[in-house]
Design a protein that fits this description.
The protein has 275 residues and is of the alpha/beta class. It contains 11 helices and 11 strands. It has an 8-stranded mixed sheet with strand order 3-2-1-4-9-6-10-8, with helices on both faces. The relative contact order is 0.14.
């Protein structure tokens, strides 16, 4: 029985899934890899099947929270690790990520050393700028040593609260809320995340973000709608373009906010929060 089970939710990840799997297979400790395909319409499943030693589970398109829960039910490891299909990893990533758990210093962990793998691409950099980060880090260096998003957790703890609530973009925050505590930083765990670097990917990701559940419900949606409206977007785009000294960010910001705006409008007519 593997001590660690890696669960990867996928949805149309044919371009990145093999790099993710290959990187995981270079880890310094034994792991079980489980891919849960969330109704992909591209060649994701076909590519995963190239690896016969990987457990592949398929479901209709319900979102990553649901996919992670399904993978956890099949996992044989005592520790669950959740990664995205567009991530790659330092060879000691899993070893370092679970070390605080093995040493009984934490029940769940996350990695502060999460870097952008395609930083050379202008749109990938603009994605970070949109998040308020001017460097190639997905998580700022001054970030606290606790976080809402768990990358690794004891399976007993995960099962105790019945996993994630499949609510859409922020479903990975729900585990922390149900557990009543935050994930602890795992020193030395380094991974690389692929930021959206084409206008198609930016549109898809931004629309998914716009579908998220808002704290103030309808009022929250209206506030977000206002922030993404053209007049406000123009002002923020101009300010940030000057701040980052990147004129191209102006177009990026208008496009990103348009996707958010459209997504929020659509959300008034549908309850589907899946990507």
């Amino acid at each position: 029985m593997s001590k660690v089970s890696i669960i990867i939710p996928t949805y149309n990840e044919a371009d990145s899934i093999l790099s993710c799997i290959d990187s995981l297979k270079q880890q310094t400790i034994p792991i079980e890899i489980i891919v849960v395909d969330d109704g992909s319409t591209d060649d994701t499943v076909k590519k995963v099947r190239q690896h016969q030693d990987i457990t592949l589970i398929k479901q209709r398109h319900l979102g990553p929270g649901s996919a992670r829960n399904k993978g956890a039910k099949k996992a044989r490891g005592k520790i669950l690790v959740f990664v995205d299909a567009d991530m790659t990893f330092d060879t000691k990533y899993i070893q370092k990520l679970i070390e605080p758990i093995i040493k009984n210093k934490a029940k769940g962990t996350f990695a502060k050393e999460e870097l952008v793998s395609n930083w050379e691409q202008p749109l990938a950099r603009f994605w970070n700028y949109q998040q308020g980060i001017a460097t190639n880090r997905r998580i700022p260096p001054h970030h606290p040593n606790q976080a809402k998003v768990f990358r690794a957790i004891l399976k007993t703890e995960f099962n105790r609260v019945e996993g994630f609530s499949p609510i859409g973009y922020t479903d990975d925050w729900t585990l922390s809320a149900k557990l009543g505590y935050l994930a602890q930083a795992a020193p030395g765990a380094t991974c690389y995340h692929h930021n959206p670097d084409t206008f198609v990917k930016i549109w898809q990701q931004a629309k998914w973000i716009g579908k998220r559940r808002y704290k103030l419900q309808i009022l929250g949606k209206l506030i977000a709608l206002c922030r993404a409206s053209l007049p406000v977007s123009l002002i923020i785009a101009l300010i940030k373009s000057i701040k980052f000294k990147k004129s191209g960010f102006f177009v990026f910001k208008l496009y990103y906010d348009l996707a958010i705006f459209v997504s929020i409008i659509e959300s008034f007519f549908t309850s589907n929060h899946a990507k």
